[in-house]
Q: What sequence folds into this?
C-alpha cells in the first residue's frame, strides 16, 4: 500500500517515513525543501536500507498536484505535514500562510475525493485552542478563535477536512501538536530547520553548541509539560 507523506523531509515527517517503511508501506516523500535539507533523504536511506521515492514539488501549484496523483494513482492516502508554521511570520505575512497552508490542503483533498476511499492525516496544531477556557487542555477542549494567522489556517484547515469528509470517501484524522520534541536513536535524522528555529529543542541545542549566547524562557509556568514526543 502506497502512502504519500508531504513535508516528508521535515522533523516529524522523516520519522513518520521511517516508521511507515518499517510497517511495510510503500512511501512517496513530497517536499519543496523550503525549510528542510535534501541530506535528510540520505539519512532516511541509511536507516531503512533502501533509497526512498522523493518528489520535489510545490503543492500550491494545482496542475503539479494533479499530475503527481495521476502518476501515483495507486496511493491510498496522504499524511500532510507540509506547511508554514512560524506564528510571528504569519502575523507579518498572513497571505503567505493562507496561500501555502490552505491552497495546498484544498488541492490535495480535491485529488483524494476522486477516489472511492482514501485516508488523510492532517498535521494541525494546539493553536486551534486559542486562549483555552480551562487548563490543562484536553482533547475535549473546544476550538477557540485563533490568536494568529497561522493558528487560523489550522482551524480553517480542520473545518475544510470535516466538511469534505462528510460528503466523500475520505477518512480523516486531525493531529493537534504542542511543542514536538525527540531524537532518532541513529542520529541520522532529527530536527535541523533552515533559518531561525520555530521549536524549543533546536534553540536548546544551538545554545549548547555555542551558536547562541543564551536560551530565553518565556512565561512563569516552568514545571508545566508542553510537548509531543516524536
A:
Amino acid at each position: 500500500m502506497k502512502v504519500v507523506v508531504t513535508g516528508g523531509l521535515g522533523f516529524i515527517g522523516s520519522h513518520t517515513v521511517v516508521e511507515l517503511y518499517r510497517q511495510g508501506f510503500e512511501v512517496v516523500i513530497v517536499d519543496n525543501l523550503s525549510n528542510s535539507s535534501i541530506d535528510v533523504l540520505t539519512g532516511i536511506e541509511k536507516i531503512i536500507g533502501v533509497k526512498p521515492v522523493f518528489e520535489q514539488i510545490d503543492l500550491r501549484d494545482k496542475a503539479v498536484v494533479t499530475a503527481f496523483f495521476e502518476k501515483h494513482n495507486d496511493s491510498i492516502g496522504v499524511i500532510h505535514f507540509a506547511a508554514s508554521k512560524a506564528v510571528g511570520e504569519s502575523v507579518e505575512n498572513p497571505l503567505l500562510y493562507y496561500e501555502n497552508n490552505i491552497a495546498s490542503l484544498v488541492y490535495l483533498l480535491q485529488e483524494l475525493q476522486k477516489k472511492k476511499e482514501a485516508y488523510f492525516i492532517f498535521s494541525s496544531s494546539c493553536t486551534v485552542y486559542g486562549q483555552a477556557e480551562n487548563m490543562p487542555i484536553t482533547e475535549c477542549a473546544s476550538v477557540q478563535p485563533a490568536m494568529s494567522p497561522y493558528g487560523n489556517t489550522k482551524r480553517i484547515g480542520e473545518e475544510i477536512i470535516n466538511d469534505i469528509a462528510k460528503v466523500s470517501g475520505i477518512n480523516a484524522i486531525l493531529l493537534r501538536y504542542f511543542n514536538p520534541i525527540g531524537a532518532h536513536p541513529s542520529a541520522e535524522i532529527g530536527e535541523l530547520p533552515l533559518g531561525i528555529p520555530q521549536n524549543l529543542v533546536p534553540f536548546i541545542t544551538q545554545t549548547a553548541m555555542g551558536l547562541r549566547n543564551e536560551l530565553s524562557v518565556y512565561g512563569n509556568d516552568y514545571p508545566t509539560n508542553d510537548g509531543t514526543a516524536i
In short: The CA atoms of residues 80 and 172 lie 11 Å apart.
